[in-house]
Amino acid sequence: MTSRSNRTKNIAAGTSARVERISGWERSSFSTADLRKLKKMGLLTNGELTRIPGDEAVPNPPEDFRVTFSDFLLRGFSTPVHEFLRGLLFVYVIQLFQLTPNSLLHISIFVTLCECFLGVHPHWGLWKRIFYLRRNNSGSAIYNVGGVCICVRPEVGYFDLKFPDSVQGWRKKWLYIKDEPTGAQLCSLSPVDLSQEILRRKSWDAEATPEEIVATESLGLRIKSLQNTPGQELSGVQILAYFLRVRVQPLQARATPLWMYFGTGDSARISADLPVGELEKLVRRFTSLTKNDVVPTTCRVEPFSAAHPIPPNHQILSQLPSLPEGGEVVEQFIIDDESQDASARAAEPAGTKKSVGSSDKLTESASVSDSSFTHSVPPAASPEGRKTKRSDGENSGESKFSEPVAEETATDFDPFGVAATPLVKEMIELGTRFAGYRIEAENLRGELLHAQEHIKELEQRLEASDKAHRDAKTKIEAAEAKAATADDLRVRLNDAETTLSKKEEQVSRRESAVVARLETQSNRFLKKIGEMYTQNQGTDEDALLDALSVLEMNCSLARDCLKYGRAALERIFPHFFPKAVIPEKFEPLAKSFLEKEDPVLAHRHASLKIGVEGTIALVMASGEKVDWAKAAAVRGLNKNSWTTLLKSAKAYSKKFLAFLDPSSSSTTSTAQPEVM
């Protein structure tokens, strides 16, 4: 296998100078609208497990909460986290927020590939044969948020899944999510440590051990077969679309692996199926597919599931990276910290090509070389043979291993760098058997421990069931003993009769109370109305019915009174409120006459004004000369003088009234005439 040390030979002199470190944090733009979208997709179900950041510029999560990004949730991340992801973060000594969205997608696709198409748990040895880590720099700047990229090794023929060169604005969409460790976890995601710098460590370039190479050789051949079987080629886009379609988060801890997935009723599903348009939109968003490219809705290779189980003789491999519970990892120490920033920008070996872009526009220029890889082709293939013609959008983003040849020879290319000599083949076969037996033994020991725990659990349940059976038997025997005695039955009968008598007494008292209350209310109403009614003297002499009859008559009288009162008020309403609309209900109609200013008094004043103006008009029409200034200045007119004047004018009052006819519209007053 090509050593990673070859890359450092291309570092130019003077590139060891330190670069500027930038945190990358800024105030979160994650809003309630974003929260609703994620809940609609099933990515967030319980509001108590989510917090929207406030005005803080850097994260300050509540206790037991961790920082994540909405783009991480869309790409397969959920809590409680899968132990494979926990192990990666621990071995690489990085925090979740230091990865990029495309890196999270790499892990999700790898987990789906292992569980659905290889029929194994996510394998640490296989991971190291395919991926390595590098810094995600931009010019002379190092970003702590999204400062680490997971890249495919150039010499490995892995799925050529083209990611977009930038994920716009993902750093601004951060939120708090509660960490939910499972019962088997001794350690959850580590709390956020904003002071932790990104330091390149030996584990970033860790390669598979010879033992791991032997153990995973069959997996490598399986990947090659998946990519190159004519008519059944599996692409990275198909794997991505599959886990989005089945609505399972690959990076979430699950009770069962994906090869046991059994459809819509599976407990690992987060929501119902996405609409086809929404699914295609997400796939195009996560990849470089255009609107003209076809998004596959099915896989050309049927994934393992409950409907398509793993073959009986299939060997299920399992190897996790070291977990925090296991202690320190030798490959965690820092290597060449002074030049690591410059080495991240060094040129890749010739023949590489771009496969994964940066995670943000600011890192676009620095993400081309280290994240690229070459197709795996036999040494004898010509340069033209390296070109693969894509037939449709489904194959876009798919890197094939070498095309299968009719007959394998000793010089056939091995995608994982193992020489194909007879001696080596024999050693590989022996090593594979040994590693397989040892792994199988470890699996059997684990299954035995699990079976023992299950037996203990069953024993506890059986003991609890026996205890419940004994308690139930005791209660039944006691009940039978009580029911067997006639005295007990007589006591129960007497108790029932006593209880019934008390109930009847209570009902009688209640009826008396109801009658008394009805009579009281009837008497109160009759006293107010002033009319009395005789009760019905029937043969039954039922006081309750008599009281109800009186109440019914009172209610009828009240309804008639309200009806007549409304008719009267409606008749006089237009005279006092000529410009108002008569209220539809009685209460506001009656209240209109109870204002602070008396409407009747106002009406009288208006009528008096009409009379005065009419009298003045009569005097002026008579031709008599009157000094109106003196008339207006008259003061101190006593009652006797007033009475004398009225008597002298009384003989002419009918003529005055004829002139002051309220039906006349020739009055100069603006007031309405008073009703005669």
UniProtKB/TrEMBL annotation:
Superkingdom per UniProt: Eukaryota
* Coiled-coil stretches noted in the UniProt entry, renumbered to this chain: 441-513
Name the InterPro entries for this protein: Transposase_28
Biased composition, class Polar residues, residue ranges: 355-375
- Keyword Ribonucleoprotein in record: no
Q: Does the keyword Coiled coil apply?
A: yes
Which Pfam families did the record assign? Transposase_28
Tell me the keywords, alphabetical order.
Coiled coil
Q: Where is this region: Disordered?
A: 339-408
Task: Enumerate the spans annotated as Transposase (putative) gypsy type domain.
Answer: 67-134
Provide ranges: composition bias, Basic and acidic residues: 384-393
Q: What is this protein called?
A: Transposase (putative) gypsy type domain-containing protein
